[in-house]
Specification:
12 strands; alpha/beta; elongated; 398 residues; seven-stranded mixed beta sheet; three-stranded antiparallel beta sheet
Length: 398
């Protein structure tokens, strides 16, 4: 009994420690991919210090919960020295600039990793650190265009359609960058040395899409037609979305025969009321099935369909808004969303760890809010810190 009590106490103590507690991350402020990578580290207990410009053209306060902010003019020598002091005490640096920018500032990996051999230097860029397009500007849509993935996205009668900026920026960019950093951290345990993580958004989005490439080789029956004419790309009538009577939508993913049978049951479609019903795998007649399904779904409201399919396992779901998703009972029990001081709830960290769960802060730092405390932690005395402030090397909130 005493052993059990002691174990349970130790377990509770462990659960107050997040998985990345003790890691220090320096994040050079940038657009979407690097802030999300930094937020993943912050959500899981790392001390993330965001290095902001004194007057950013675009707000840095998206994806910034749980971080600290120091505002630094990295175009001044004293600002460069300050960042070097930060990275000399850091485990990880995340930088989002085009290749060569950090080198020109005197903050390239050779210099910083000479001063801190354990530093993991993560470079998030569009096309990577080398190659003829390394210096080219781009956004999510461009990276998907250049790696071939965009050619597969969209409906058959329309131009290729970009999936917001999720696939390259966040899946192929931020998420794989974090995976790369964690692999480098694991390697550091045995080698004692950091390394450069070259995280290209174009490369990463291609890697995330490996199933598309591999299935074209090994399962060509999944891709018999062009874009938008196949099983998983809106060509299939039982893997698609349908408008309801109240102008909402239902998502259908009834691929397997048993789920397809349940779909027909829920829609009240059978050989009696549809004697010429096409077979599930009769691809030339899929457009007929789509017409039948569309007419059925438009005969009832979304809530009516939710009630019908609540007791039928058919892979049919309502398409929820952000607010509706946050209020759904399953998502509430799973704690899928976090309450934030302003606006709609935001997604909570995932995956969930049993022993060292994430416990993210939701407060957003003001630009330069932690400048003075970070300077103090680096060994700057008050006189020097105020001198940096007066000479506009650093800044604090006005």
């Amino acid at each position: 009994l005493l052993y059990t009590i002691k174990f349970e106490v130790q377990l509770r103590d462990l659960q107050t420690i997040m998985a990345l507690k003790g890691l220090r991350v320096v994040e050079m402020a940038g657009l979407a991919p690097s802030p999300f990578a930094g937020m993943i580290f912050a959500d899981n207990g790392a001390d993330v210090i965001r290095v902001d410009p004194l007057k950013p053209l675009i707000s840095s306060n998206i994806l910034s919960r749980g971080k600290r902010s120091i505002a630094v003019n990295i175009k001044k020598p004293d600002g460069v020295d300050l960042v070097r002091k930060l990275t000399s005490q850091a485990d990880i640096l995340i930088e989002p600039f085009r290749p060569g920018v950090m080198e020109r500032l005197g903050l390239g990996p050779e210099k910083l990793m000479e001063e801190n051999k354990r530093l993991i230097y993560a470079r998030l860029s569009g096309y990577g650190q080398n190659g003829p397009m390394a210096q080219a500007a781009g956004h999510d849509i461009n990276y998907l265009a250049m790696n071939g993935v965009l050619s597969k996205l969209g409906r058959s009668s329309e131009a290729p359609f970009p999936p917001v900026n999720l696939l390259a920026d966040f899946a192929g960019g931020s998420s794989l960058c974090v995976v790369g950093v964690m692999m480098a951290l694991f390697s550091r345990h045995s080698s004692g040395l950091g390394q450069v993580v070259d995280a290209s958004l174009a490369d990463g989005a291609a890697y995330i899409s490996s199933f598309l490439f591999s299935s074209l080789n090994k399962m060509p029956m999944m891709w018999p037609g062009g874009r938008g004419c196949n099983v998983l790309d809106s060509g299939c009538p039982y893997y698609n979305t349908y408008r309801t009577k109240d102008d909402k939508f239902m998502a259908v993913g009834a691929l397997e025969p048993q789920f397809y049978s349940s779909l027909l049951k829920g829609l009240d479609i059978n050989e009696t009321n549809n004697p010429d019903l096409p077979h599930q795998m009769d691809m030339p007649r899929w457009s007929e099935l789509s017409t039948i399904f569309s007419a059925k779904f438009q005969s009832k409201t979304q809530e009516e369909w939710v009630q019908i399919f609540s007791s039928i396992d058919a892979c049919v779901s309502p398409v929820l808004s952000f607010a509706e998703a946050a209020a759904h009972p399953h998502n509430i029990e799973r704690e899928m969303f976090l309450e934030v001081p302003e606006g709609i709830p935001e997604p909570a960290p995932s995956p969930k760890l049993s022993g060292t769960p994430a416990s993210p802060g939701v407060r957003i730092p003001k630009l330069g809010e932690h400048t003075m405390e970070i300077l103090e932690s680096l060994g700057y005395d008050k006189e020097t810190s105020h001198g940096l402030l007066q000479s506009k090397v650093v800044n604090v909130p006005g």
